[in-house]
Amino acid sequence: MSADEEPTVSPVVEHCGSECDEALDRLFAFLDSELVPSDAEQVRAHLADCRPCLEEFDVEAVVKKVVRRSCQEAAPAELRVRIHEQLMVLRVHTD
Ligand SMILES: [Zn+2]
Known about the structure:
Helix content: 55-70%
Distance between the termini: 33 Å
Order of helices and strands: HHHHH
Number of helices: 5
Structural class: mainly alpha
Largest sheet: none
Low-confidence stretches: none
Bound molecules: zinc ion
Mean pLDDT: 71
């Protein structure tokens, strides 16, 4: 037992900073193909560097958010597949 090991039980997954929130927020636009290439590249670069972001990322949550943003009632299967593929690509690149 070391004094450094404090029994901190946090209900929140440890986040690497506000940069993460920003990146995740922009990721929705990124997946929605709304970002200009330079912005998209920034999001991609962050996710490539930041494994917590990527692992925390939930396809269903993204699909819901994108659907809400675009005022559609339901996510087209195509959108779901596209998001899933994008995330798979990002995950593969971080390995
Ligand atoms: Zn991050």
